[in-house]
Design a protein that fits this description.
The complex is a heterodimer of chains A (199) and B (93). Chain A is mostly helical and 199 residues long. Helix content of chain A is 77%, strand content 0%. Chain B has four helices and no strands. The chains are: A mainly alpha (199), B mainly alpha (93).
Chain lengths: 199, 93
């Protein structure tokens, strides 16, 4: 709840500032890039400081890569096809929209910086909704479909926001897998989104 | 490609520094607040970009519809991909 208020407050305050103040287009590009670097450094720092993270990931063996790779490819292809063929986004923007896996606090600002505010807004909203959908659907999917599918639904949030729910819905069975899935996707997102704009 | 490398190096540097035993406790204490502050600034910047463009404000309804369809596409396709792959994995000889 506090995090939701924080997110809404930051975006809302920025939105009002943009309405009131006359800020030239592109004026925030350089500072935003520096903050992005600080953020991805912080992500690495946070993951590295969880001393047992690497051991927990290694203990999963082949499943370690199977689930994140399949869920990432599935998610990326689904979003990219929808964005490109239904909404007419250029392929690289469509692929970038599919590369956040529900991590809205990164995808929105990142794509605003790389592809403009319209794409950034769509990325932010779609990833917020992805997390909300996951929170609603995980118990049902875990019960009637399977725990791996429930983890996939959580995307990058499976290591934090949806982790307690996944643990509860799968009786703890999928907790290490969900954590590893989220960590791997969280490490991939900061590299994968700009990748689509690099050629 | 330059940006990809820089971001990958920043993530790797953070991981390496955070996993050092001498720096671990400090990283645990500061990693999360640093991320939270950075996220706050980035979201504020995104809000400024949106608020300073009237053409985007007028399109919010359409953008919302796009966002709903993309979020459903992402969740459902990830779920289907894992379901199909898991069944194929089970069936292999």
């Amino acid at each position: 709840m506090i995090m939701t208020l924080f997110v809404v407050g930051c975006v809302g305050l920025g939105f009002l500032t943009g309405l009131i103040a006359d800020i030239p287009v592109g004026a925030l590009d350089a500072p935003i890039l520096v903050v992005l670097l600080v953020l991805v450094f912080g992500v690495g720092l946070d993951l590295g400081a969880r001393g047992d993270a690497w051991q927990r990931i290694r203990s999963l063996g082949a499943r370690l890569l199977f689930l994140p790779v399949v869920s990432a490819v599935g998610s990326l292809v689904g979003v990219a096809l929808m964005a490109a063929y239904v909404w007419g986004y250029p392929v690289r923007q469509a692929c970038a929209l599919g590369s956040a896996f529900g991590w809205y606090s990164l995808s929105g600002p990142f794509l605003t910086h790389l592809a403009g505010p319209e794409v950034g807004a769509v990325a932010f909203l779609s990833d917020v909704l992805r997390e909300l959908t996951a929170l609603v659907m995980i118990p049902l999917v875990a019960r009637y479909v399977g725990s791996a599918e429930a983890v996939a639904l959580g995307g990058a949030t499976s290591m934090d926001t949806t982790l307690p729910l996944l643990a509860e819905a799968t009786n703890g069975e999928a907790t290490p897998l969900a954590f590893a899935h989220g960590v791997i996707l969280a490490l991939v997102v900061p590299v994968l989104i700009p990748f689509w704009f690099s050629f | 490609m330059h940006l990809v490398l820089v971001l990958a190096m920043a993530t790797a540097a953070g991981w390496w520094l955070g996993s050092r035993p001498a720096f671990g406790p400090t990283a645990r204490r500061w990693g999360h607040p640093v991320m939270l502050a950075a996220i706050g600034v980035l979201l504020f910047g995104m809000g400024v970009s949106l608020g300073s463009r009237p053409e985007i404000i007028s399109q919010m309804g359409t953008l919302g519809l796009r966002a709903v369809s993309l979020s459903l596409a992402g969740g459902v396709s990830a779920l289907l991909a894992v379901g199909v792959a898991r069944r194929l994995w089970r069936k292999r000889p």
